[in-house]
Specification:
With 332 residues, this protein is an alpha/beta fold. The protein is 40% helix and 15% strand. The chain has a domain of 218 residues: NAD(P)-binding Rossmann-like Domain (Rossmann fold, 3-Layer(aba) Sandwich), CATH 3.40.50.720.
């Protein structure tokens, strides 16, 4: 039987990934923290692995003992109180896992690393072409820079190994919590925007993402490969709100908040949270990412190499997601 190790297994993408892998009948080992909520996946997982990914010795022992066919590394920090913590997890832990995997006596057939389009960063609204795998790095957040550095580490040290790096754009779907804030705000009657500049946005439904990650495991590929992932479309900044209105027959009040006002609020939030273990919803770097002009990306390489065919455009995927939120009483 095929045996796979999945890190970040209790997270949003991880839980959907577990479900998709279980449908294939593979033996699943899920790397989680002891404090993780595994209620949604415990019946599907063969073994929970409580692995300190920052401890190379422990990681190496795990790979030597288990002999995984595939590894899907989806664990990451999206924000932290300091860059040192963010880079230690997103770069250091990734290096430990890859080095241990391919130093073991029975290395995996393929190592799949879930990076992010944030590693590349946005482009100009009127750019001649969408973001592709050769677009130069220009991340606008610490998270994006940590993913960029992880990718560069892989290029520098592991270019001859069977590794597939995926850069999904904004991922949405049932159980996702960040974009849910927008849907909850719409449900309460407000449809707010920062400034009035147009944007080109891209999205991928979580079910499409996990399917292409599995393709990344099983499809024959040359050594190191990079793939940008979205549903293949570019959307206006109003697209999600328009679909929400259609699904629930609501007419929330559309507001345009001046960028200067939100910028001041973001700086104030960062100051207030400076001594806290938590991070605010809006802070200066996050504001830059939210107001970026163009996140459209080409998925041609994934379509050609991996036979990637997104099944969900934003209307279909978001409708399914919104109904899930309603049925599960996230939206009341």
């Amino acid at each position: 039987m095929v045996k796979v190790l999945i890190t970040g297994a209790s997270g949003f993408v991880g839980t959907h990934l577990i479900e998709a892998v279980a449908d294939k009948g593979w033996e699943i080992h899920a790397a989680v923290r002891k404090s993780s909520n595994v209620e949604n996946i415990k019946s599907l997982v063969s073994k929970f692995v409580y692995l300190d990914q920052g401890d190379y010795g422990a990681v190496s022992n795990c790979f030597e003992a288990e002999s995984y066919d595939y590894v899907i590394h989806a664990a990451a920090l999206t924000k932290a109180k300091n860059d040192q913590e963010l880079f230690a997890v997103n770069v250091g832990n990734t290096e430990n896992l890859i080095r241990a995997a391919f130093s073991s006596s029975q290395p995996p057939k393929r190592f799949v690393f879930v990076s992010s389009l944030a590693a590349i960063g946005p482009i100009a609204y009127n750019a001649e072409s969408a973001i592709d795998e050769n677009t130069p790095y220009a991340p606008v957040t610490s998270y994006g820079r940590s993913k960029r550095d992880a990718e560069q580490m892989i290029k520098d040290n592991f270019s001859k190994f069977p590794i597939s790096v995926f850069r999904p754009t904004a991922v949405y779907g049932p159980r996702e919590k960040d974009l849910f804030i927008l849907f909850d705000t719409l449900n309460k009657g407000l449809d707010p925007y920062i400034g009035r500049k147009p944007q080109k946005l891209s999205f991928v439904y979580v079910k499409d993402l996990v399917q292409v990650l599995l393709q990344g495991c099983i499809v024959e590929q040359d050594c190191l490969q990079f793939y940008n992932i979205s549903d293949g479309n570019a959307y206006s900044r109003f697209a999600m709100a328009e679909i929400f209105k259609e699904v629930f027959s609501k007419k929330p009040l559309r507001l345009f908040i001046p960028y200067s006002v939100v910028s001041l609020f973001a700086k104030l939030s960062a100051f207030i949270y400076k001594g806290s273990t938590k991070t605010p919803t809006i802070y200066p770097e996050r504001l830059g990412e939210l107001t970026a002009e163009n996140w459209s990306c080409s998925i041609e390489k994934a379509c050609v190499n991996l036979a990637f065919e997104p099944r969900f455009n934003l209307e279909r995927g978001l409708t399914e997601s919104l109904l899930w939120y309603k049925q599960n009483k996230w939206l009341k």
